[in-house]
Amino acid sequence: MEEIKKIARELLAENKVQVVLGFEKGTANKVRPAFFTKAEDIDKLIYNEACIHNIALYLKKDTCQHAKGVAITATPNVVRSILQLSAENQITEEKIHIIGITHEGKCAGILDFKAAEEFSKTQPKGLKPEDKALIEKIQAMSLEERFDYWVEAFSPCIKCYACRASCPMCYCGKCNVETNNPQWIPVASHKYGNVEWHMMRAMHLAGRCINCGECNRSCPVDIPLNILSYMLSDFVLDEFDSEAGLNSVFTSALSAYTVVDKENFIK
Amino acid sequence: MARIGVFICHCGENISATVDCPKVSEVAAKFPGVAYSVDYKYMCSDPGQSLVVNAIKEHKLTGIVVSACSPRMHEPTFRRACAEAGLNPYLCEMANIREHCSWVHEKGDRTDQKAIDVVRMMVEKVKRNNALMSIKVPVTKTALVIGGGVAGIQAALDIANAGHKVVMVEREPSIGGHMSQLSETFPTLDCSQCILTPRMVEVAQNPNITLYTYAEVESVEGFVGNFNVKIRKKAKSIDETLCNGCGMCTTKCPQKKIPNEFELGMGNRPAIYVPFPQAVPNVPVIDRLNCTYYKNGKCKICEKFCQPKAIRFDQEDEIIEVAVGAISICTGFDVKKTDFFPEYGYGKHKDIIDGLQFERMASASGPTLGAIRRPSDGAEPKKIVFVACAGSRDPAKGIEYCSKICCMYTAKHAILYKHKVHDGTAYIFYMDIRAAGKNYDEFTRRAIEEDNAQYIRGRVSSIYERDGKLIVIGTDTLMNHETVEIEADMVVLATAGVANQGAEELAQKLHVSYDQHRFFSEAHPKLKPVETNTAGIYLAGACQSPKDIPESVAAASGVAGKISCLFSSSELTREPLIAFVDRIAAPDYSSCTGCFLCQPVCPYNAIEKEDIKDRAGNLIKSLAYINPGLCQGCGTCVAICKSKSIDIDGYTNQQMYSEVDALLNS
Ligand SMILES: Cc1cc2nc3c(=O)[nH]c(=O)nc-3n(C[C@H](O)[C@H](O)[C@H](O)COP(=O)(O)OP(=O)(O)OC[C@H]3O[C@@H](n4cnc5c(N)ncnc54)[C@H](O)[C@@H]3O)c2cc1C
Ligand code: SF4
Ligand code: SF4
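^ Those are the sequences you sent over. The predicted structure of the assembly is below.
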């Protein structure tokens, strides 16, 4: 922890960065994401196992956008998000100083993008046992049963869009659901309207989602959206040999053709 | 407020026999926003068009729906009518109730209902159409001709004589193609070289033509009117500006036994060589794979004897960039070799040759100086068998098509043989004699009647060697399918004409389509026979399918006509139905997030990066920008863009949505 603080403090003091993105203590034993702009405030910077939010999300917010340099305390999920954002031309390496934190909570020092790619590949991806069980259950279903399962699963959705708000990959300024001329996706929350929204979101994330699980964590009605994304990522890996969050330069399964693409879905 | 006009066409009886046109018109009149609706026998006729023009003026229409045939047929007609009436032509839509309705359904209420639905959809669409301006793109008035066979030569000369610049790229050291290898040509028996050589020389001398031989197209970018082409000029190891074509080097080269490609292996050539005496340009090249110097680092004899000091051993391939407005593919064809035929001995019998080899043998400048000789022992063959359709029209061999030229050249071969070997007999195994063409049937009759060619209708099942003779086993289907056995001295296989080597790679470089046999595809088999699917790229000659000389030349002149039309003005008008990325007010500038996931999906490389900067020049945002000159409006980018930042003029999201909505919520 002290090491993280030391790095952050130095970066701010030397004016290499104007913002450090990390966590501070919240109310009632909770933690909350925080922007630190002064070296003396770094005392308040914390990191513990409660700090699970994917704060890469905030890299696209004004405070970070307007700064010349930004440092971020980055768990494996955050690192993957950063690499994917870079691959999609949303952030540049010169600006971002990654303070790596391993899945065991150890400081990995400052990572450039090359080191971050290595880090990303070697850090395990966590899937909770109950998630695994659910995936197995869904995989055992027929296609019709799966569809019915998801229609049912989406039905409590109140379209609060918390999943979108917490997702670092949902950075579009104008989301499709906000397009009302024409209104392809209905705003009201009803059975099939909900399906349309979640299908669209899943398709837009296919091959881009880094599987941090924020969507599910933020969902007030507990829809297992992370499972949907996880299964899609698995499919993309299988079909296109491509995995999001491992490369800082462009690799998009859905918009690039490579000779190893199996294209089984056409045959 | 929209004031839409609906014009229902009967198309004679094509539509009205199945669809109740007056009823459709009546119903359409009540659609919201429709100010005028009418049905008429032939909307595309002069009175029909006047009806449209007058209605637009009289009823102050803001858009029209012509409910008739496919827009492919008459959209341009009615757009013109709109323009004549002072309405923007892109405020016209076609509702196809012929191909989509009357031609594919039975008469009845449901068919009428479908016609009504189709019209309703288009009414809803046209209400959302925007007035569009056609796009002007500049035209570079230089044509690239790829391949210097007779087709390429004709195309180049015609275009050059129309006053335009031509760049010709030929893969071999000389232009001329297959025609330069032929002896005499059907149906007139004039000497091939004699009619071709003057045209080859003309190409070299025409000031409008720049000729690159021993060169290939490396890459092509751009679009109609504006292609950028990189040409790889392979190293000839000669300074062409110095060489005077004396030929000293070729006589002194110690390598003498390299199989001569031009003679199809029936003669030899040195390592430094000119493919044939009449070659254009008359400049030798060094075949580096076989040259002693390149192999062993020692020799340079040619250099010693070259008076103008033109030999350049260190020459490298050169990449030349040219800007052209149109491209003609004239890369010709090839023929299957005798090794393709297991039943005829896999090419291991020396005295079984292919048609092209026979041409060289019959040619006065060929390896036997025009005498017909068995390759094995040089004896004059007294019995010769020609096998037509060798490989062609044979699905089992993967070549189901007819190679078209073989019937004719086989008849020619039989005639030439008889002219040279008076006491010999020529047998021809054939499937049908296909001699359609001016003076063609007369020509084959001449072979039969005057030159005693023995035509046997049937296929040859096998050929084998016995005591220095070739035993040809076939059937005569006109004689009760009797087995025929001929003890021949020599056999000539009229092997199938196939796509040229490298055709597939070239097609991919040019983004044009090709068929399952790797022949280039025309845009329409009847109406666009010399165009490809890519605007500005044309094709002529045997690269499209086996063709004889008159056909190849006619196609080449057709291409020259097309290209001259394209070059007749300095600007090209294009339909403005292209994609664009939205632009909105600051601070967002666009809903585009600059993710550039759309960039790799565009098949025309039309998507570029545009940097939005503040007044001090600081970058605010990088956005996708679609080059209107390159975009073909395919819509692929629209589908990939997550934020729906891309729309296509004429097919906007709004227009599509309202069509679907009109259909589902009627
Ligand atoms: C045995 C035989 C006998 C024939 N006899 C007659 C006859 O008597 N009368 C008649 O009308 N027709 C005859 N023909 C048909 C005649 O040969 C063709 O019609 C004619 O050659 C077609 O011309 P072309 O220019 O399309 O193709 P080609 O003659 O094949 O010329 C193509 C040219 O393009 C060049 N090229 C190929 N690929 C590339 C590339 N990638 N880049 C650059 N250059 C390239 C080649 O080197 C060649 O010079 C005969 C054909 C054969 C096989
Ligand atoms: S895909 Fe859409 S958002 Fe991404 S760069 Fe292209 S236009 Fe912009
Ligand atoms: S519409 Fe097609 S051609 Fe035009 S920019 Fe989009 S992908 Fe490229």
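Residues 142-234+317-332+500-566 of chain B form a domain with the FAD/NAD(P)-binding domain fold (CATH 3.50.50.60). The pocket of iron/sulfur cluster (ligand 2) is lined by residues B 581, 592-598, 624, 640-641, 643, 645-646 (CB under 6 Å).

Shout if you want it in another format.
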